[in-house]
Fold this sequence. Notes:
Blueprint: E1 14-22, E2 30-38, E3 44-49
Bound molecules: zinc ion.
Amino acid sequence: MENRECLKCGSTEEGTDYMPIKNSKMSMSGGNKIYTFCLECGEVDSIRIENTEIFRKK
Ligand SMILES: [Zn+2]
């Protein structure tokens, strides 16, 4: 993963946080919402969804 500079404070120290997600309450399959954020000021650099296939309509 490349280190990007924070737009707010210029820090290159990044942290990540994962939040489990599902496409519906009944669904057994899930993925993660991945937050990449600045460790210095907390600015969120990106939010990414893992396993986007599960959100496709079948
Ligand atoms: Zn920052």
